[in-house]
Input
Amino acid sequence: MLASVKDILQEAKNNGYAVGAFNVFNMEEAQAVVRAAVKKHTPVILQVTEKTLDYGGDGIIFDVVKAVIERESATIPVGFHLDHGHSFDSVIRAIDVGLDSVMIDASAYSLRENISVTKRVVDYAHSKNVFVQAEIGIVPYLGETDPSPDWEKIMTNPLDAKWLVEETKVDTLAISVGNAHGFFRERSEPDWNRLSEINKLIPSIPLVLHGASDWVNHKVIEAVKRGVVCFNVDTDLRVAFNTVLCQFTHDKCNIIDPRVVMAEARAAVQKVVENKIDLFRNP
Ligand code: G3H
Ligand code: 13P
Ligand code: ZN
Output
């Protein structure tokens, strides 16, 4: 059942649990996530990026993911969200296609510019009843930043987070507390005091933790205690999908029906998502 991200996150926040937001790029990955959610009787969020909209064609990927949600989940709430919109125009593009939940990631800008771009997006989005996530502080990317980021410089300043929320009226916030996109780049231990402080200053805002592919039980437990209600996962799904493709291009390259390969990749992703759902819901 296609549901609003706002309701899914609010419900999680009210009841003290977290949900997974999973990046998908095609029909098989969308099915893998929705099937895992249905099997686990747990709400999830599916999300696409600008690159995925470009890859599939905006409207086409939107229709594919929406059809999978509507046809495969009769009762489990499934949200559909734009992840990491980097400009006002790209967010508008996603809203025009039909998404009712978007992220504006202006985290690379100065605080003032971040607030200004985010506010412009929020004003437009709220006039269309669209839910908005912003990012403050930087969640670095594997391969796109220095080997060891200067965490003190890039982690979220709690007072800035409060200011951004007050100025923009944004609905949710992605925060940087030592988490990183991809594998191997995390701070040795997340800055738990910082996360608690952010949560204390903006207690009604559901916090989103990006780069959760490599997060394990004790970190998930601490994060949920301190206001995180959504964990973003992409890399782990890509690895599961590609591992199957690699097997078929090497040891099993006599298979000529691509559906055999794709079905196996889909099943591998579903398994990963089922484990993540368990981890986030009951760490
Ligand atoms: O955090 C977002 C993704 O991991 C990057 O996704 O390659 O589709 O832009 P992308
Ligand atoms: P990972 O690729 O590290 O799982 O991060 C995903 C993410 O944050 C998507 O926004
Ligand atoms: Zn992210």
